[in-house]
């Protein structure tokens, strides 16, 4: 018959495990998990003014502003605020919106088109320092150019509005991705 462990030994063993576990948690404290660790930590608020629209499609600026606000709130640790004195300001301008015919049938009816939207964006802190830089093609320009195409097929019931909205949402996703901290 094996000896029964004493109550004091079990308590001491549990205490030792608790101390080791607590030490592991404290040792991991500076590390951050999740997508919040991808973004600069010294920023809390972002002001996104209504986006200027230089095209004839009148509501693109408002729709992109809404998409950007949702994307920032969803993916970043930042709070979008109406206060122009926020920690940072994300300024954008829709500079072009086009529709290109890709294919036609024998009767010259359009079968597939591309809806394209181009946006210029600049993200700066309250002191005017740029926070978003073009890492692929460095230029002296203070803005980064983003362009997005979305294909749609009218015969399949797809519309230019749906394609443009998808392009705006993809642009918002790409702009927020550029807000990530550089390694």
From TrEMBL:
Domain of life: Bacteria
GO biological process, one term: Gram-negative-bacterium-type cell outer membrane assembly
A GO cellular component entry from the record: outer membrane
Protein name as it appears in the record: Putative secreted protein
């Amino acid at each position: 018959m094996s000896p029964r462990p004493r109550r004091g030994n079990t308590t001491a063993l549990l205490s030792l495990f608790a101390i080791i576990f607590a030490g592991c948690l404290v040792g991991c404290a500076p590390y951050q998990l999740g997508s919040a660790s991808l973004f600069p930590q010294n920023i809390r608020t972002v002001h996104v003014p209504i986006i200027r629209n230089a095209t004839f499609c009148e509501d693109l600026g408002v729709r992109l502003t809404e998409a950007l606000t949702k994307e920032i709130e969803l993916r970043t640790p930042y709070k979008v605020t109406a206060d122009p004195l926020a920690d940072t300001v994300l300024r954008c301008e829709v500079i072009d919106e086009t529709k290109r015919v890709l294919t036609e049938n024998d009767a010259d009816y359009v079968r597939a088109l591309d809806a394209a939207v181009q946006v210029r964006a600049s993200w700066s802190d309250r002191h005017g320092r740029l926070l978003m830089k073009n890492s692929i093609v460095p230029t002296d320009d203070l803005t980064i150019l983003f362009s997005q195409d979305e294909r749609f097929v009218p015969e399949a019931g797809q519309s230019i509005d749906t394609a443009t909205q998808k392009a705006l949402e993809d642009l918002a996703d790409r702009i927020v991705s550029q807000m990530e901290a550089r390694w």
